[in-house]
Amino acid sequence: MNLKALFLAGCALSLLPVPVAVQAQEAAQDTAAQAADAVEATTPLETFVSQIDIPYAEFTLDNGLTVIVHTDRTTPEVSIGVWYDVGSRNEPEGRSGFAHLFEHLMFNGSENVPGDFFKPLEEAGATGINGTTSNDRTNYYETVPASALERALFMESDRMGYLLGAVTQEVLDEQRGVVQNEKRQGEDNP
């Protein structure tokens, strides 16, 4: 149904008595839903995916870190996602929660940026700062104003290389308790 026909149908519906208009509107919605379902059923997902083209650059640093960059200058923000190829599948048999514990520890600062990882990024205007752990990976992400890109990348690289010197027994005990509590509440799945 084209836009003009849809507009005219809407005008016609507005002239009908309310119960008839409601029935006609419901019938039109059902027909539209059926048509959409038919299109979805006959158009494979691969067709849609093959039509998507997001340009990016990919390269590997000397230390083995794979970097993927997509530039979109329509917004003054930068989103950063760091994925580690380690998750709960890497934990020793019968000893779960280590991957999740390390995810938490990574938010407690590093040797060169001690304390709360969130605070310096929030001061720079960051949003959406968090991380997750699954069976096969642990990831961290944040969205920062473009002007804070250097700070965010420095902080990500610093916690990659200089985390251990910032982990104290107090921090370890605190985060172990947090992870154990999340596990008890069912928030830690895997």
How would you sum up this structure in a few lines?
The chain has 190 residues and is of the alpha+beta class.
Question: Could you characterize what this model shows?
Answer:
- There is one protein chain.
- By secondary structure, the chain is of the alpha+beta class.
- It has 7 helices and 5 strands; from the N terminus they run H-H-H-E-E-E-H-H-E-E-H-H.
- The protein folds into 2 domains: 3-50; 57-184, 2-Layer Sandwich (Cytochrome Bc1 Complex, Chain A, domain 1).
- It has a 3-stranded antiparallel β-sheet. Strands 1-2 form a two-stranded antiparallel ribbon.
- The radius of gyration is 25 Å and the shape is globular.
What characteristics describe this protein?
7 helices; single chain; disordered N terminus; two-stranded antiparallel sheet; globular; alpha+beta; 2 domains; 16% strand; Cytochrome Bc1 Complex, Chain A, domain 1; 190 residues; three-stranded antiparallel β-sheet; 5 strands
Radius of gyration: 25 Å
CATH architecture designation of the largest domain: 2-Layer Sandwich
Query: How confident is the prediction overall: mean pLDDT?
Result: 82
Number of strands: 5
Strand content: 15-25%
Strand line-up across the major sheet = 3-5-4
Detail the topology: elements first, then pairings.
Elements lengths: L2 H13 L2 H25 L2 H6 L6 E4 L5 E4 L7 E8 L13 H8 L12 H6 L3 E7 L4 E8 L3 H13 L7 H16 L6
Antiparallel strand pairs: 1-2, 3-5, 4-5
Helix pairs in contact: 1-2, 4-7
